[in-house]
Amino acid sequence: MYTSGVERPSSYQRRSKMKSFITNTLSDFFFEYETPRQVLVRNKRVGVVCRLIQLGVLAYIIGWVFIYEKGYQSSDTAVGSVLTKMKGVGYTNVTGEERIWDVADFVFPVQGDSSFVVMTNYIMTQGQKIDKCSEPPNSKNRCSSDADCEGRSERTGDGHMTGKCLVNTTKMCEVLAWCPVEDDGNIPDPALLMSAENFTLFIKNTINFPAYGVTRCNLVEGIDNQYIRSCLYDPKTSPLCPIFRLGDLVQLSGFNFAAIAKVGGAIGIIIDWTCNLDHDQSDCKPIYSFHGLYGNPDETDTARASVGYNFRYAKHYMEDKQEKRTLLKVFGIRFDIIVRSVATKFDIIPTLTAIGSGVGIFGVATVVCDLILLYLLPKREFYNNMKFKVTETMEKEPLDEFKSEKEVSKKHSEEVLVHHEAPLSET
């Protein structure tokens, strides 16, 4: 019998075995390396297939991912602003009335926004006041009796019907409206402000790439006040000049100025900033392009509705203590300036990501070659036996309380090795 104060030998052995087990486990985890088994196959057809696939993957990684898509770079889009300024003076002479039109008259709005309209044609109705008068001759509200003009307001009408038919005069319904009502049945042809073809547009565009701390302006290096006074944009000789002649803009967008000036239309001006900041910042320059959006009457689709662009605005004034107005139906060219920007620069993270994905794609060659070896070639069973090692089921050795399966497996492997080596030594 052992006294209660003395530790039993069996408990000491257990603790020693546990300590040895933990030490061996940690040693195996930190200081052993396992690698998959590889089989070298000498087969010309399979080898050629493998190398062709690997060559294709390599071409994809280098050619597409790195050279074309620039997978080694990160990208950022810009924030910026666009300021515009029109210059020009127009002259009209309608029924002997001469008028001069300047920027305050033919540009809407006048604040220099990135989207604006330049008036090229108009229909003016002067001296309108609120009164009762007849609908214009081109109105659909014709009548033969007062019953046809019952009190209502048509959505497309000129005012509120009074219920009276002017049978003896115009045979149109009487309305309470701004009289005389506008008659827009005949659009002036040619356009009254054909001189707008020589108007000029100045564009100032500033952008900032916040991720890279880079700010650029379309007034790039080499463009100073002296250059701006004399330059005019030309896609070949002056591609960086920020001053554009309206006639040239319309022509570059694929429209005919006389046709679009008559009924109006829309043109998009694209300022493209595609910058590779791995190069010097001075190489980051804008590229201008022009696109006709709508409004060309010469298009082959003659069934199109609502061709052109127009709107109305009025100038109110007081005369003899009565409110009056001058109404203009404006036909003009709407310009929308759109800035597209992207900057790219080398970044280690997308570079490693692109390399890692490329290395992973190399595994396609292994998968394809394995399928050929195991399922298509005549000696597929031989290759199957070489690739996969199949072991017979053996009776499991009872595990010691602190002996790992790895140690038992190692013991069995040593026994099998001795079993196979014994006959060789005998011979």
TrEMBL record:
<dbReference type="InterPro" id="IPR003044">
    <property type="entry name" value="P2X1_purnocptor"/>
</dbReference>
<feature type="transmembrane region" description="Helical">
    <location>
        <begin position="354"/>
        <end position="377"/>
    </location>
</feature>
<comment type="subunit">
    <text>Functional P2XRs are organized as homomeric and heteromeric trimers. Forms heterodimer with P2RX2. Forms heterodimer with P2RX4. Forms heterodimer with P2RX5.</text>
</comment>
<dbReference type="InterPro" id="IPR059116">
    <property type="entry name" value="P2X_receptor"/>
</dbReference>
<comment type="function">
    <text>ATP-gated nonselective transmembrane cation channel permeable to potassium, sodium and with relatively high calcium permeability. Furthermore, CTP functions as a weak affinity agonist for P2RX1.</text>
</comment>
<feature type="disulfide bond">
    <location>
        <begin position="143"/>
        <end position="165"/>
    </location>
</feature>
<dbReference type="GO" id="GO:0033198">
    <property type="term" value="P:response to ATP"/>
</dbReference>
<feature type="glycosylation site" description="N-linked (GlcNAc...) asparagine">
    <location>
        <position position="198"/>
    </location>
</feature>
<keyword id="KW-0406">Ion transport</keyword>
<dbReference type="InterPro" id="IPR027309">
    <property type="entry name" value="P2X_extracellular_dom_sf"/>
</dbReference>
<keyword id="KW-0547">Nucleotide-binding</keyword>
<dbReference type="GO" id="GO:0005524">
    <property type="term" value="F:ATP binding"/>
</dbReference>
<keyword id="KW-0472">Membrane</keyword>
<dbReference type="GO" id="GO:0004931">
    <property type="term" value="F:extracellularly ATP-gated monoatomic cation channel activity"/>
</dbReference>
<dbReference type="GO" id="GO:0098794">
    <property type="term" value="C:postsynapse"/>
</dbReference>
<keyword id="KW-0325">Glycoprotein</keyword>
<dbReference type="Pfam" id="PF00864">
    <property type="entry name" value="P2X_receptor"/>
</dbReference>
<dbReference type="InterPro" id="IPR053792">
    <property type="entry name" value="P2X_RECEPTOR_CS"/>
</dbReference>
<feature type="binding site">
    <location>
        <position position="200"/>
    </location>
    <ligand>
        <name>ATP</name>
    </ligand>
</feature>
<feature type="binding site">
    <location>
        <begin position="310"/>
        <end position="312"/>
    </location>
    <ligand>
        <name>ATP</name>
    </ligand>
</feature>
<keyword id="KW-0812">Transmembrane</keyword>
<dbReference type="GO" id="GO:0070588">
    <property type="term" value="P:calcium ion transmembrane transport"/>
</dbReference>
<feature type="disulfide bond">
    <location>
        <begin position="231"/>
        <end position="241"/>
    </location>
</feature>
<dbReference type="GO" id="GO:0005886">
    <property type="term" value="C:plasma membrane"/>
</dbReference>
<dbReference type="InterPro" id="IPR001429">
    <property type="entry name" value="P2X_purnocptor"/>
</dbReference>
<feature type="compositionally biased region" description="Basic and acidic residues">
    <location>
        <begin position="143"/>
        <end position="156"/>
    </location>
</feature>
<feature type="disulfide bond">
    <location>
        <begin position="275"/>
        <end position="284"/>
    </location>
</feature>
<keyword id="KW-1071">Ligand-gated ion channel</keyword>
<keyword id="KW-1003">Cell membrane</keyword>
<keyword id="KW-0067">ATP-binding</keyword>
<dbReference type="GO" id="GO:0001614">
    <property type="term" value="F:purinergic nucleotide receptor activity"/>
</dbReference>
<keyword id="KW-0675">Receptor</keyword>
<feature type="region of interest" description="Disordered">
    <location>
        <begin position="401"/>
        <end position="427"/>
    </location>
</feature>
<keyword id="KW-1133">Transmembrane helix</keyword>
<feature type="transmembrane region" description="Helical">
    <location>
        <begin position="46"/>
        <end position="67"/>
    </location>
</feature>
<feature type="binding site">
    <location>
        <begin position="85"/>
        <end position="87"/>
    </location>
    <ligand>
        <name>ATP</name>
    </ligand>
</feature>
<feature type="binding site">
    <location>
        <position position="329"/>
    </location>
    <ligand>
        <name>ATP</name>
    </ligand>
</feature>
<keyword id="KW-0813">Transport</keyword>
<feature type="disulfide bond">
    <location>
        <begin position="133"/>
        <end position="179"/>
    </location>
</feature>
<feature type="disulfide bond">
    <location>
        <begin position="149"/>
        <end position="173"/>
    </location>
</feature>
<feature type="region of interest" description="Disordered">
    <location>
        <begin position="134"/>
        <end position="156"/>
    </location>
</feature>
<keyword id="KW-1015">Disulfide bond</keyword>
